[in-house]
Write a structure and sequence with these properties.
Elements (H helix, E strand, L loop, with lengths): L14 H8 L2 E11 L7 E11 L5 E5 L8 E9 L7 E4 L2 E5 L6 E11 L4 E5 L5 E5 L19 E11 L3 E4 L2 E7 L4 E13 L5 E4 L1 E6 L7 E6 L3 H7 L3 H11 L8 E6 L5 E2 L4 E5 L10 H9 L8 E2 L6 H19 L1 H21 L19 H17 L1 H15 L3 E2 L1 H12 L4 H8 L6 E8 L4 E7 L8 E9 L4 E8 L3 E5 L5 E6 L8 E4 L1
Parallel strand pairs: 1-10, 16-17, 17-19, 20-21, 22-28
Antiparallel strand pairs: 1-2, 2-7, 3-6, 4-7, 5-6, 8-9, 9-14, 10-13, 11-14, 12-13, 15-16, 18-19, 22-23, 23-26, 24-25, 24-27
C-alpha cells in the first residue's frame, strides 16, 4: 500500500475480537451477492459464509459494522442452507450467530442492508462521475460485509454484483458470468478459490475503459482507467508488465488469476488488492510517473497478499518488503546508483520519523492500526532487508527470500518465521541482527573523528544513542593526499572505539560510501 499523505487518524478497529474469533473458527469461503443503486447509497447484501468450527462453542461471531448515526449494516435474517432460521445478535460491530448443528462445518446465509460508513467507498471521482470501490485496509471490510476482519483468517471469495448497466465491474477473482437484464442492471459474478485475507477482497465499479497487454506469462495483465482518462491511464500503467516480469523472475510464479491495474477513487495512493490493484485517480496524469507506485503494489501480490503477516504488528513483512522490492526493481532497471538514491531518501525518513515516534518495527503499542502506516513499517523495514542482504550476501539472501515465500504462500507468517528461513539460508544465527533492527526502537547515532599527528592517525567512533550499542559493520572510504582511495570496514559494537590507521596520510573520509548502513553519522 502507498498512502497519499501520512495522516495519523483514528479508525474504528475490532482487531482483538477478530483475532480471538480466528482461534475459534476458520472461515472457508465468502459468497457475497451485493445489489447497488444509482438512486441511493444503501447496499443490499446476501452472504453465504462457510465456517469450520475449531471449538465446541454454541455461538460464533463475525465482524460487521452496526448502525450508528445512519451508517452501518442492519441484519434482517440469518438462515442455514436447509432454510432454518438461526438466532443471532448484532451489536458493537459483532454479529454473533447460534450454531444450527454440531457439524464441524456449516454455511450460514446472512441477509443485511445499510449504508457503508467506509470500506466500500460510494461517491464521485474527479470527473464528477459516480463510483463504487472497496477500500478495506486495515480492517474495514466488515463495514460492508460480514467477515473475520484480520489477516490471520484467509478464505476464498465469490462476489456477485448487481448494478446499473452503465458501470463496468472489476472484482477479486475471475469473471465467471455477466448477465444484463431488461430493468437496466447487470449481474457480474467473480470467483477466486485462492485463500485471501479480507483486506484485499474488493469490488470496483465505474465508467471504465480497459486495455489488455500481450506478454509471455500465463495470466492476463490489463488496465482499467476512467474513460475520460483512458489515454493517460494506458500510458502511465503500461510499465506493469516490466515490473511483474522482474518479480516473477526474482521471487517466483505470480500467485493470482490476473493482474488488473485500476484507476480508483479511494483514500490511499495505492492499494494492493489481490489481482486488481487500485491506484489513486490523481496518480494518473500521462507523465509516466507511476513506476515506483506500481512496483510497490505489484510486489505486495507476493508479500502481504499471498504470504501475509500473521498479525498487524508484523506489517513490515508486507510494507517493508514491498518498499525494498521496489528498490530492487529500480536497481535492476536503472542500476545500483539509482537504488542507493532511493535508499538514502528512505534512511532520511526513518531517522526523522524515529525522533517523533520512537517505536520498534515490530510495534505492539500502537494506538490505531492506521498508526502502523509509518516509516518504520515501510522504509525501516526496507532497510532491514537491505542490511540483511549486505550481511549474508546476495546468494543466501535471495535464496532465503524464495524459500520464505514458497513456505508461506497463501498462508501467514511472523517475523520469527522469516528469521528462521533466512538463518537456514545463511547458515548462521541472526538473532542479534533481527533483535536490534526489529525489536529495538532506535538506530545507531555515530560520531566519527579523525585525529592526525605527525606520527599517528587515530579514528574514534562513538555511539551516541542512549540505548545499548549496536553491533554493525561500517565502511569508510579514505582519500589520501596522493589522490588514491581505499575502503575499509570497521566492526562497531561498543560505545566508544578507537582504531589506529596506517601511516599513509589521509585527506578526507567518506562514511558508508556504498549505502549499506541505517545510521545517523556525524563526521568531525
Amino acid at each position: 500500500m502507498k498512502i497519499a499523505c501520512l495522516l495519523f487518524i483514528l479508525c474504528a478497529v475490532c482487531t482483538s475480537q477478530a483475532q480471538n474469533q480466528s482461534n475459534a473458527i476458520d472461515v472457508l469461503n465468502y459468497a457475497l451477492t451485493l445489489e447497488l443503486s444509482d438512486s441511493h447509497d444503501t447496499i443490499f447484501g446476501i452472504q453465504n459464509a462457510t465456517v469450520n468450527f475449531k471449538t465446541d462453542s454454541n455461538t460464533f461471531c463475525l465482524d460487521l459494522a452496526s448502525v450508528n448515526n445512519g451508517k452501518g449494516m442492519k441484519v434482517t435474517a440469518v438462515t442455514t442452507t436447509t432454510g432454518k432460521d438461526a438466532r443471532f445478535t448484532h451489536e458493537a460491530n459483532q454479529l454473533c450467530i447460534s450454531r444450527a448443528t454440531a457439524d464441524a462445518t456449516g454455511t450460514y446465509i446472512i441477509h443485511y442492508k445499510g449504508i457503508p460508513k467506509t470500506g466500500l467507498i460510494i461517491g464521485k471521482n474527479k470527473f464528477n462521475e459516480r463510483t463504487f470501490f472497496g477500500d478495506n485496509w486495515p480492517n474495514r471490510a466488515h463495514q460492508w460485509f460480514p467477515c473475520l476482519d484480520h489477516p490471520a483468517d484467509k478464505a476464498s471469495i465469490q462476489f456477485t454484483v448487481i448494478a446499473p448497466s452503465n458501470y463496468k465491474c472489476i472484482a477479486t477473482g475471475v469473471l465467471k458470468d455477466a448477465q444484463t437484464f431488461q430493468n437496466g442492471t447487470t449481474r457480474h459474478t467473480f470467483t477466486s478459490k485462492i485463500q485471501l485475507p479480507t483486506k484485499v477482497m474488493v469490488i470496483g465499479l465505474a465508467d471504465f475503459e480497459t486495455k489488455q497487454f500481450e506478454h509471455t506469462l500465463n495470466f492476463p495483465v490489463d488496465i482499467w482507467a476512467y474513460k475520460k482518462d483512458a489515454e493517460n491511464g494506458f500510458k502511465d500503467m503500461a510499465v506493469a508488465t516490466n515490473v511483474v516480469d522482474y518479480f516473477v523472475a526474482t521471487i517466483g510464479p505470480y500467485p493470482f488469476e490476473k493482474l488488473s491495474n485500476v484507476q480508483s477513487t479511494t483514500q490511499f495512493g495505492g492499494m494492493e488488492n489481490a489481482g486488481n490493484i487500485f491506484y489513486d485517480e490523481n496518480a494518473v496524469n500521462g507523465q509516466q510517473e507511476m513506476e515506483a507506485l506500481i512496483a510497490h503494489e505489484i510486489a505486495h501480490q507476493w508479500f502481504g497478499n499471498s504470504a501475509s503477516e500473521s498479525d498487524w504488528k508484523h506489517l513490515w513483512l508486507s510494507e517493508g518488503f514491498a518498499t525494498y522490492f521496489t528498490d530492487l526493481y529500480f536497481e535492476n532497471q536503472y542500476g545500483t546508483a539509482a537504488m542507493n538514491e532511493r535508499l538514502k531518501g528512505e534512511r532520511k525518513k526513518v531517522i526523522q520519523f524515529s525522533k517523533r515516534y520512537p517505536h520498534p518495527v515490530i510495534d505492539t503499542t500502537y494506538a490505531s492500526l492506521m498508526h502502523l502506516l509509518n516509516p518504520h513499517s515501510y522504509q525501516k523495514g526496507a532497510w532491514v532487508l537491505h542490511m540483511l542482504r549486505t550481511k549474508i550476501g546476495d546468494s543466501a539472501f535471495f535464496s532465503g527470500i524464495r524459500t520464505y515465500y514458497t513456505t508461506y504462500k497463501f498462508g501467514n507468517a511472523s517475523s520469527n518465521d522469516f528469521q528462521k528461513c533466512m538463518q537456514t539460508s545463511a547458515g548462521k544465527d541472526l538473532t542479534t541482527f533481527f533483535d536490534q533492527w526489529l525489536r529495538n526502537a532506535h538506530h545507531p547515532e555515530l560520531k566519527i573523528e579523525l585525529n592526525t599527528t605527525n606520527k599517528n592517525q587515530l579514528l574514534t567512533i562513538e555511539q551516541l544513542q542512549d540505548q545499548h550499542p549496536f553491533n554493525v559493520e561500517l565502511e569508510i572510504e579514505f582519500t589520501y593526499t596522493d589522490q588514491t582511495t581505499a575502503i575499509k570496514q570497521f566492526t562497531i559494537d561498543k560505545k566508544v572505539q578507537q582504531f589506529q590507521l596506517p601511516q599513509k596520510k589521509i585527506k578526507t573520509i567518506n562514511c558508508d560510501p556504498n549505502t549499506k548502513l541505517l545510521a545517523e553519522i556525524n563526521t568531525l
